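ENTRY TYPE: paired fold submission
RECORD: A
CONTENT: sequence, then structure tokens
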Amino acid sequence: QLQLVESGGGLVQPGGSLRLSCAASGFPLHSYAVGWFRQAPGKEREGISCISKNGGRTHYADSEKGRFTISRDNAKNTVYLQMNSLKPEDTAVYYCAADPHLFCSDPVIWGQGTQVTVSS
């Protein structure tokens, strides 16, 4: 069974940090580009970041540049999202998704999501 499992979400104060993990099982994650997405209540899902298969190329949405860092450890079949300087507007369910193509244009495997809440 092809599966992605996110972890690391939780409640954090504004200005705090969280590190999300996306662990793959049932398939070799190194064969996929991986993206992080999020969806806040009442809003559409948006792309946050993407990392290429070998980690050599990354992309961030403008609002996340300088605050978030995506990385991957293919030996552990895991992708990470380090989130710093968190803001209340970062509150959302965060999903990772794997794309067998060059980058994160059409992910085919999605995780179940992890809740991130930024609040004082």
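RECORD: B
CONTENT: sequence, then structure tokens
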Amino acid sequence: QVQFVESGGGLVQPGGSLRLSCAAPGFNLYYTTIGWFLQAPGKEREGVSCITAGDGRTSYANSVKGRFTISRDNLKNTVYLQMNSLKPEDTGVYYCATDCDPTHGHGWGQGTQVTVSS
């Protein structure tokens, strides 16, 4: 059963950048659609970005288009979320899981906290 491990979060000023990593030891991420999700304080978990299995087609929430980039390193078996031009509203815990829909995702880990604040 897949279990994801997220890392790379932290405290950053508005306009700054972070790169989040998503790994799943023993599980080949190439064959699975992977989504990044944000749970902001007091809000439900929502989809941020997604990369499909195999061909690696990507999709983004409107709120992050042009600022965030999802990618997959097949050799390192890791999915990344490069976050640029960060805004305070990007603050929350970021998770990765299977699927692009948070209601269908599996393998939820502990997440990684991102705080955007001056």
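NOTES ON RECORD B: The chain has no helices and ten strands. The chain has a mean pLDDT of 96.
STATUS: closed
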